[in-house]
Every structure is written in C-alpha cells, then in structure tokens.
C-alpha cells in the first residue's frame, strides 16, 4: 500500500490536470451531444491503459464500458465492476459562474466531486498498479452511465447485467462528509404521483354542488405525511402540490408529487400497502395514484461488510482511518447490492457540496483515495 501511495502522490499533478479537463468538459444529463464529447475525452485519457466501447442509451446518449489492461495473469478469473457516471446535474454554461479553480487546498467546479473526481481516481489507480507491476487477479471493468442523475432509466438493465457477472462492485461516488466515509447502506428511493379529481362549481352561485380537489388533496397530504416513521428511517415527503384554476372556482383537479425513502425492502412493502389503501375523504372526489420504488435499498449485507472491512484495513496500512456510513441518497450501487452482489460505495473523492455551488474536493486526499482504490483492485 505504501508503494501505491507514493506512486499516486508522484502522479498527483497529472491527475489534477486530467480532472480539470474532465470538469471543463460539461456533461449535463439532458445533453446527449455533450455526454458524447465527455465520453470521447475520457476514452482518449484512458486509451493507453484500457479498451473502451460505448453502449447506446437512446435519447440520453451513450454509456461506456472501460476494460482496463492490468498486470497479473493474462487470463483473469472473475470480475470487479467499478461504477461511474458521466452526467452531472449542472446545466451547460455553469462553468461561467462556477469555473474550475484550485484554491484553499480544494479543487472546485461542476461535477468535480459528483463524480468526475472518482473516475479520475480509478484511472490513476490503474496507472499506479501498472507502474509498480502489481498483479491483479480479476478483470477490472468500469461502467460509466450517462443517466444516473435522472434515476438511471436507460442504464439500470445494463448495470444489473454487468453486476450479475461480477464478484464485487466498487462505486466511485463521493464518500460521506469531509472524512470521506464509505457508504455501506443506502436507502431505497421511490416516487408517487397522486392526482385528485373533484367536481367544479361556481364558488358563489353553486357552492354545495362542488367537491374541491384542493381540499381533498390537503387532507391526503396530511395522511401521507403521517406515513413518515423517523425511528425506522422511513420518510415520505410531499414535495410538490398544484391544483385549481381561480379563487372563485371550486377546484376540479389537484395533484402532488411525493418522494419516499426506505432503509429496507420490507419497509417499502408496508408503505406501498398504505399508499394503495388511500381513499377519498369526500366520496365525490376520486384519487389516482401512480409510481412506486425506483431504486431498491442497498442493505448492509455480509458481502458489503466484508468489502468495507478490507478497505478499512488497506487504508490503515497507509495511516488513513476510514469509517462506514449510511445515507438517504441513492446511487447505481443500490441496484447491484439489491441483486446480492457485494457492493462498496463512496470510494470516490473526499469533499463536499455535491449538487451545490460549493462543490469541491480536498486536494491532499486525492493520493490516498487513489491508492486505496488500487489496493482494493489488487486484493479482492
Ligand atoms: Zn453521483
């Protein structure tokens, strides 16, 4: 591990330069053309250490499969899948207000933490392993999805297929907080849309004939919000409501968008049951519910715990203490863990401000995170 760390340190400036190029190549989820440009750039940076191919993702652009060429047996046994995503939440032109900069010991810019830093890390972990000729037993493949920030609609099946033939999955999402904690549990995430159909009427002339969809929705919002169970970690958030047309019209329609988070799959079954049992308080109104679970929870299985233990031991060899953490946010690791494949998440950069204007990573943690990733590839 010490040699890997020294090698990562020696390449640190080069890694920062590559990361700068990745960040300055904006790649919002909405723009297939810009995702394509990012793919080309990444492929060029990895050309001397990997075989790269792309997979069509319809209107979202293309995913990438990067198979690294590593020391060790030519005929590898088993596979390690690393997960990245090329898309960011930042619209085109964000660089004008959030330009790349290096100051206060940090690197700043859109997507630097989530998750271009993590992908640069893997590229240089591979370089360190090659430079030191450290044997790697398993095939190492990185899958770079182009639709993660919008819920992975086009990549989910590919992620599940690739995970199915892998012994372990390493997710290059940022670690938790400025300690860079590993993520060994993630909540499952779902979404519901609730539409209410009421009966329109003149609010002055014909009040009693109306059945307000707005009032009905307000009652449902209160019921739904009560499904939250903080002790179990189950949360239900009615985040968007809309309804009605004018103040003097009894509303004929109203609707809400609801976000749910569940730590365990069985919590979802119970919650789903409660949603499906919703009935209108005013019988003249009708409810229409759609949606469900999008990402299943990543539960801390024995395989997840085993990978975390290995990472903690390897980090300790270079004097770095890492811990485990759980989070309410999801990643593509939710899909792989739910299939029962050992998954370790949060192995990317150390920093803060994902999806926020102060998005940044800590420069002095680049080398040890890179070495940790290299160590894992050689030890799994
Ligand atoms: Zn991410």
Task: Name its key features.
380 residues, 6-stranded mixed sheet, 4-stranded antiparallel sheet, 10 helices, binds zinc ion
Describe this structure in words.
There is one protein chain. Helix 2 packs antiparallel against helix 4 (112-131) and helix 8 (302-317) packs across helix 10. The protein has helices at 2-10, 12-24, 32-46, 112-131, 156-164, 213-225, 265-276, 302-317, 333-338, 366-379; strands at 50-56, 62-68, 79-85, 101-103, 106-108, 139-145, 168-171, 182-186, 188-197, 201-202, 235-243, 249-250, 253-262, 286-295, 324-327, 343-344, 351-352, 360-362. Strand 1 (50-56) and strand 2 (62-68) form a beta hairpin. The protein is elongated, with a radius of gyration of 24 Å. The mean pLDDT is 96. A six-stranded mixed β-sheet has the order 1-2-6-3-7-16, with helices on both faces. With 380 residues, the protein is of the alpha+beta class. It starts with a helix and ends with a helix. It contains ten helices and 18 strands. 33% of the residues lie in helices and 26% in strands. The chain binds zinc ion.
In N-to-C order, the SSE pattern is HHHEEEEEHEHEEEEHEEEHEHEHEEEH
Helix percent reads 25-40%
Number of strands: 18
- Rg on CA atoms, Å: 24 Å
> Helical stretch count?
10
Category by helix and strand content:
alpha+beta
Strand order of the largest sheet: 1-2-6-3-7-16
**Overall morphology:** elongated
Question: How confident is the prediction overall: mean pLDDT?
Answer: 96
**Uncertain residue segments:** none
Our measurement of the CA-to-CA distance between the termini, rounded to an integer number of angstroms, reads: 14 Å
Which ligands occur here?
zinc ion
Share in β-strands:
25-35%
Main sheet specs: 6 strands, mixed
């Amino acid at each position: 591990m010490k040699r890997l760390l020294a090698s990562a340190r020696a390449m640190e400036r080069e890694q920062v330069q590559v990361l700068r190029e990745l960040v300055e190549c904006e790649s919002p989820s909405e723009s297939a053309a810009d995702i394509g440009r990012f793919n080309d750039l990444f492929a060029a940076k990895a050309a001397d250490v990997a075989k790269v191919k792309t997979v069509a993702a319809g209107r979202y652009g293309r995913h990438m499969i990067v198979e690294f060429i590593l020391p060790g047996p030519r005929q590898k046994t088993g596979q390690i899948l690393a997960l990245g995503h090329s898309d960011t939440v930042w619209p085109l032109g964000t660089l004008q207000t959030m330009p790349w900069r290096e100051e206060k010991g940090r690197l700043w810019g859109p997507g630097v933490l989530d998750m271009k830093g993590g992908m640069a890390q893997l590229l240089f972990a591979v370089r360190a392993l090659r430079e030191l000729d450290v044997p790697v037993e398993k095939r190492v493949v990185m899958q770079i999805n182009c639709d993660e920030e919008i819920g992975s609609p086009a990549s989910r099946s590919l992620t599940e297929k690739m995970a199915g033939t892998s012994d372990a999955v390493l997710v290059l999402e940022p670690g938790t907080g400025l300690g860079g904690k590993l993520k060994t549990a993630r909540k499952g995430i779902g979404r519901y849309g609730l539409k209410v159909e009421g009966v329109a009427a003149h609010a002055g002339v014909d009040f009693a004939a109306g059945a307000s969809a707005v009032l009905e929705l307000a009652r449902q919002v209160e019921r739904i919000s009560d499904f939250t169970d903080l002790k179990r970690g189950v949360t239900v958030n009615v985040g968007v409501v809309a309804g009605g047309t004018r103040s003097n019209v009894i509303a004929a329609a109203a609707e809400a968008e609801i976000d749910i988070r569940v730590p365990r799959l069985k919590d979802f079954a119970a919650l789903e049951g409660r949603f499906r049992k919703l009935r209108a308080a005013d019988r003249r109104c009708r409810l229409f519910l759609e949606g469900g679970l999008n990402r299943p929870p990543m539960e801390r299985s024995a395989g997840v715990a085993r990978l975390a233990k290995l990472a903690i031991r390897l980090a300790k060899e270079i004097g770095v203490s890492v811990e485990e953490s759980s989070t309410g946010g999801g990643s593509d690791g939710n899909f792989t863990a739910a299939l029962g494949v050992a998954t370790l998440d949060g192995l990317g950069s150390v920093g803060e401000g994902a999806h926020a204007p102060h998005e940044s990573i800590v420069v002095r943690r680049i080398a040890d995170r890179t070495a940790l990733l290299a160590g894992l590839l050689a030890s799994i």
